[in-house]
Amino acid sequence: MSISDLYSSGKHKQEIGHFSNIVKMAKANGKISEEEEALLIKSAKKLHITTEEFKIILENPDKFPINPPVNYEERIERLFFLTKMIVADGEVNELQVVLLRKVAIGLHFPVDTVDKLCNEAIQLVIKDNDLVSFTVAIKKIGSI
Length: 144
Description:
By secondary structure, the protein is mainly alpha-helical. It has helices at 3-27, 34-46, 51-59, 72-87, 94-106, 114-126, 131-141. Helix 4 packs across helix 6 (114-126) and helix 6 (114-126) packs antiparallel against helix 7. It is globular.
């Protein structure tokens, strides 16, 4: 196995971890809406998740660890896509917010700013900010 193979498999583990978190957000209220399902399919394609992996993760997303990226920008990007899943069906419920906070901590955002960070993330996505604007605003709350 070459170094590029190791990187590739490590990167895919991160993608699987990220996708499992997106699935957790979609399932947090006990059902997956049509909007959430469409976003799951789009996310799976972007993250190179196979059909078989998709089915396994959808069945049991808790089986997969977070595997956060080291890069701060990539962690903010993950937060962005997780927040988009929460807002996808137009309803943000408390279970989704609690889960988002837990995942944000798992992504190594500072515990003392997680509540403010997640609340701001939700508001930014509701207001349809793009990833660039989202990143700038999240960085203002506090970096690592």
